[in-house]
C-alpha cells in the first residue's frame, strides 16, 4: 500500500507526519515499510528518522537530454531558433548557441533541423540512493543536480526503486513524503498511490494550498484524508477548515514544544516523547487511518 503525505505548501508538518507514520507502521503495526523522500530539491526525511547508519544502494539518474550541435553539418538556417518555445537557442556568429539554463530537453530543435545537425545527449539529472536509518527503516531519496529540471521523472524513479526494495524485504507499505506545492514532483508522488494524507495548518495560505492539492488528487483519482497540524494556534480558523475541506479529517495535532525538541535531536516524536500531547494526537490519527483505510 502506498501512502502519500503532502501539504500544498511548505512548513505545515508533512515530514513530521511522514516520519512518525513510518515509525507507527513499524513499531505499532509491526509491518515493514519503505519510505520515499520525494522532495528531491531539499530532502530531509532521512534526517527526521535519525539519519543514515548505512547506505544500501546508489545510482546515477539520467532523466533528461541536452542538444548537441554538429557545426560541420549546420547550415545556420535558424529553424531551431524559431522552433524553440523556451527561447533557449540564439543565433551567434558561428551558428546557433544553446542556453543550457533555459533548455528543457524536449528535442524540437533536433526534429526541425533539415540536415540532422542536432542530436540529443543524455544528461545526468541527479542521484538516487537508499539508506537504512537507526530505526531500521529504509529511506529512498534523491538529490537533484544544481540547475536541473525534470524532478517529476526523478520522483517516479524513486518510487519504482522503493517498490523494488520493498519487494525484496517484504514491505507492506510505502510512505511517500511529497515536496511542497503542486508541481511535477508532487504529481509524480501522488500518481498511482492508494491514499493521500493532506497536512494543513489553521492559516488561509495553508488551506488554499490544500484545496489546490485536492484538485490534483481528484484528477488522479486518489482518495484524500486530512490532518490539521498546530490547530490550537488558531482554533477559530479550524471551523472554516471543517466547512470548506470536504474530506475526512483524521484528527487535530496541537502545537507542542516537544516536536521542536525531537526535530533538533533528529528523532521521531513518537520515540522521543510518546506521552506528549502531540504524540497522543498522532496515534489517534494513525489509528483512524488504520481502521478506515489500511487493510
Task: Describe the protein in words.
The protein has 295 residues and is α/β, with parallel strands linked by helices. Helices cover 37% and strands 27% of the residues. It has a nine-stranded mixed β-sheet with strand order 3-8-9-2-10-1-11-12-13, with helices on both faces. Strands 4-7 form a two-stranded antiparallel sheet. The chain is elongated and about 70 Å long. The model has no long low-confidence stretch (mean pLDDT 93).
Write a compact overview of the structure shown.
By secondary structure, this protein is an alpha/beta fold.
What is the average of the pLDDT values? 93
Rounded Rg: 22 Å
Identify the CATH homologous superfamily of the largest domain: P-loop containing nucleotide triphosphate hydrolases
Please indicate the count of domains.
Answer: 2
Give the biggest sheet: 9 strands, mixed
User: What fold name goes in the CATH topology slot of the largest domain?
Assistant: Rossmann fold
Poorly predicted regions are none
CATH architectural type of the largest domain: 3-Layer(aba) Sandwich
Task: Please list the strands of the largest sheet in the order they lie side by side.
Answer: 3-8-9-2-10-1-11-12-13
CATH class of the largest domain: Alpha Beta
Please report the number of helical segments.
Answer: 11
Strand % is 25-35%
Termini separation: 9 Å
Amino acid at each position: 500500500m502506498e501512502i502519500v503525505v503532502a501539504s500544498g505548501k511548505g512548513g505545515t508538518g508533512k515530514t513530521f507526519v511522514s516520519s512518525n507514520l513510518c515509525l507507527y507502521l513499524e513499531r505499532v503495526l509491526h509491518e515493514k515499510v519503505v519510505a520515499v523522500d520525494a522532495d528531491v530539491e531539499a530532502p530531509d526525511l532521512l534526517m527526521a528518522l535519525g539519519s543514515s547508519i548505512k547506505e544500501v544502494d546508489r545510482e546515477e539518474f539520467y532523466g533528461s537530454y541536452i542538444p548537441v550541435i554538429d557545426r560541420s553539418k549546420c547550415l545556420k538556417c535558424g529553424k531551431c531558433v524559431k522552433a524553440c518555445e523556451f527561447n533557449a537557442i540564439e543565433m551567434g556568429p558561428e551558428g546557433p548557441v544553446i542556453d543550457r539554463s533555459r533548455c528543457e530537453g524536449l528535442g524540437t530543435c533536433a526534429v526541425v533541423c533539415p540536415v540532422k545537425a542536432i542530436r540529443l545527449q543524455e544528461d545526468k539529472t541527479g542521484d538516487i540512493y537508499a539508506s537504512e536509518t537507526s530505526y531500521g527503516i529504509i529511506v529512498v531519496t534523491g538529490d537533484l543536480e544544481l540547475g536541473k529540471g525534470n524532478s517529476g521523472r526523478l520522483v517516479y524513479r524513486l518510487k519504482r526503486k522503493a517498490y523494488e526494495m520493498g519487494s525484496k524485504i517484504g514491505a507492506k507499505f510505502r510512505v511517500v513524503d511529497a515536496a511542497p506545492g503542486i508541481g511535477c514532483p508532487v504529481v509524480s508522488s501522488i500518481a498511482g498511490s492508494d491514499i493521500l494524507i493532506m497536512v494543513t495548518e489553521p492559516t488561509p495560505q495553508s488551506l488554499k494550498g490544500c484545496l489546490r492539492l485536492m484538485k490534483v488528487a481528484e484528477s488522479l483519482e486518489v482518495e484524500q484524508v486530512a490532518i490539521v497540524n498546530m490547530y490550537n494556534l488558531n482554533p477559530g480558523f479550524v471551523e472554516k477548515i471543517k466547512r470548506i475541506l470536504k474530506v475526512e479529517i483524521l484528527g487535530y495535532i496541537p502545537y507542542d514544544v516537544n516536536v521542536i525538541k525531537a526535530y533538533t535531536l533528529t528523532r521521531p516524536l513518537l520515540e522521543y516523547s510518546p506521552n506528549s500531547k502531540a504524540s497522543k494526537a498522532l496515534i489517534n490519527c494513525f489509528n483512524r487511518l488504520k481502521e478506515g483505510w489500511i487493510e
